[in-house]
Amino acid sequence: MAVYKRELKLALMNTLPVVAGYLVMGFGFGVLLISRGYPLVWALLMSVFIYAGSMQFVTIDMLAGGASLATAALMTLLINARHLFYGISMLDKYRHVGRAKPYLIFSLTDETYSVLCAQEPPAGFDRKRYYLYVSTLGHLYWVMGTALGATAGEVLSISVKGIEFSMTALFVVVMVEQWMQSRNRLPAVIGAGCSLVSLLLFGPDNFIPPAMGLMLLLLTLLRPYTEERGLRA
After folding, report:
1. What mean pLDDT value characterizes the chain?
2. What is the pTM (predicted TM-score) of this model?
3. Which candidate among 94, 203, 221, 228 keeps its CA 20 to 30 Å from the CA of 162?
C-alpha cells in the first residue's frame, strides 16, 4: 500500500482547488434542500448517488414542483450534455483502467475533468490509481460539503437567498481557469459564440438544445484544425 501513497499525495495536492469549491457548493446545496423541507438523508443520498452538481440544485425545484420522469430525464440531458464532450476526450485516458472505469465515468464532473486534463502524473506513477484517487476525492468533498450544509440547515436559521447562483459562479471560475491555462482557446470561443447566437435567436428558455447541437457540429468539423493548433501552440 505504501507504494501508492505518492499517487494519493499528488491527487490531494491537485484537488485542493476542488475541495474549496465543493465544500462551499455542497454546503449551499445541503442548506437549500433542507430549506425546502427535505430531510438530511435525502441530501446525502442525492450527493452519493446522483453527484451532479448543478443538476442537484435543479432537482430541488423539480421535486417541489412534482415534475414527471420525462421532464426530469429531458432536463438532465440538457444540463449535463456537456459530459458528452468530456467523455469523448477521456477515451484514451480511461482505455486501460479496468474495473474502475464505471466509477470513473460516473464521477467525471467539470472540476475532476479540469484536474485530470491540467496535469498528467509523472513517469512511473500508476495513472489508473491516480485517476481513481482524483475522482474519489472530488466525490468525497462534495458529500462532505452536502453533509455540513444539511446539518447546518437543520440546526440554524440560514437565509437561502442567492444560493442557487452558486453553481453558476463555480462554472465561471472553472472556465476562467481553463482559459488562462489553455494554449488553444478555439473550443472556448466556439462554445461562447454558439451560446450567444442561440440565446439571441431562441431566447433564454430555449437556447440550450440548439447551442449544444451547434457546438457539437462545429467542434466535430473543426477537430483536425484545433488539434493542429494545439500541437503548434
Report:
1. 82
2. 0.72
3. 203
- Domain borders along the chain are 2-181, 182-233
The dihedral built from the CA positions of residue 64, 68, 73 and 79, taken in this order, carries a sign that is negative
**pLDDT at position 176, please?**
80
Name 104's Cβ contacts closer than 8 Å, sequence gap at least 6.
Answer: 94, 97, 131, 132, 135
Q: Which residues contact 35 (CB under 8 A, 6 or more apart)?
A: 153, 158, 160
Cell of 43: 441530501
Whole-number pLDDT of residue 170? 65
Cβ 152 vs Cβ 30: under 8 Å: yes
Work out the burial of residue 150: count CB atoms within 10 Å of its CB; fewer than 13 is exposed, 13-18 middle, 19 or more buried.
Answer: buried
CB 33 within 8 A of CB 153: yes
- Distance from C-alpha of 90 to C-alpha of 53, rounded to nearest angstrom: 20
d(CA 224, CA 97): 27
